[in-house]
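pls read this stuff:
=====
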Amino acid sequence: MTNKDLADLLFPSITKTIKDYEEMYPERNLKEGEKVTRFAPSPTGYMHLGGFYQAIIDYVLAKNSNGVFFLRNEDTDTKREVKEATKLIMDTLTHYNIIPDEYEFEGNIVGSYGPYVQSERKEIYHAFIKYLIEIGRAYPCFCTKEELDEMREVQERSKVRTGYYGSYAKYRNVPVEELISKVKEGIPYVIRFKSMGDFNKKFVFEDLVKGKIELPENDEDFVIMKSGDGLPTYHFAHLVDDYLMHTTHVVRGEEWLSSVPKHIELFRTFGFKPPKYVHTPLIIKKEGTSVRKISKRKDPEASMTYYKEKGYPVKAVIEALMTIINSNYEEWHTANSDKEFTDFVYSPKKMSSSGAFFDLEKLDNIAKTVISKMTKDEVYDNLYNWTKDYDKEFNELITKYEDYTKNVLNIEREQKKPRKDYSCYSEIKNQIFYMYDELYNPSSYDWGSITDKDEINKILNLYMDKYYDISDKEVWFNNIKELCDNLGYASNMKDYKENPDNYKGSVADVSTVLRVAITSKSMTPDLYEIMKLLGKDRIISRIEKLK
């Protein structure tokens, strides 16, 4: 009996060959320098910040070169698969406008190199595995979990490397006849790759981020097809898919560096040219004085749903990630503020090799700048869309008062240095609630330095009786200054600073009383604009409630 007999027994229905699939998936019609990248997440949970960070790199690499960016669903880990994860991945990419050129979603395939879901490509993988068995580079392994655990214990006691290799590879050199017999008996098995590497020898691997690295050759007979469902492992599936889909660049986390020897040996065994690898640094964050990897368990910001739920602008999240993707991005963006992030030429060499530091405070600052540059209509539309999903009550309110809300959002916006009040849409309601009678029901007032109730009433009554005039900003402010002079407050801050004992307080204190009386807050945007929008009747109503 031969290896071919074993291969035919294991895969009796597989009639297509590697050559057949090469003809089905011909070379792409690419011009020189055009790159083909893929975002290949596993649908095992929520969309992780680190995965999205890699998707942006994939997207920029493809767009920089006028190439192809495709989405591949790596769902071979059926035990950990989460039903809604695929939709969440697609929704996230769509939300950020990182749209793949090729993908498969809800039964619809876009592109000529699908299926783009690995569980639908089983026959393809089996054809490649069948070939390995035929040439003696793969074999069935019938070890039980208990046998593998025992082997590991022996290795640990002997203080040698753990793993299925060399003399520990129990079924590596078993005669074909015996393997065939066990298969026929129905004994469960996995398929293992038969390595020809020598762990004591090194080879040079060039990573586009870390440069040339010396790695030990692989000598482990690792699993390439699992028992039960017959699906391949990641190690094998990505080789077949990246070869047939003609991926030129693979972007993945640096934790995969240790698997490179396995992958390179697989590519060499088939005689395939491996893609270029971009192993990205881990996303890290500060915690007190220490630095650690961002964690799914500990950090809500590790999930991409966090940014959508908070209402961060799409552009801000991408900008924040671009600053950690390449060290020179901020400088470029400052000089090219009118350009899109896809116009930036990404360089793997300009990635940090020690970790990518992601800072929420920095994201907040970027987001405030992004929102400050929007028109009132843009802010309103984005706020409307966010509240539609996350705050229906506020959505109804801003829909009812659309023009009014736009004017509220426009306070100190159309000027040389617009205010930077909001980092995300979820913050807006708490900052402008006092502009809506339906939301205005303060339980406390931030009066500042003037706390005497009689004095507060005196200021408010005199202002409303004699000095209320919002027809013009200059007139309005001069009236407040006159009010100050009348009540013994310094109408000029310079005078107050030079002789504070001569006055009850300053124009700032009187302005604060007015501000707090109608908003309950001591810090707000331009008071004149607020008063103009509220109008006299609503201002009087709020002041009356204080008495």
Summary: The longest strand covers residues 202-207.
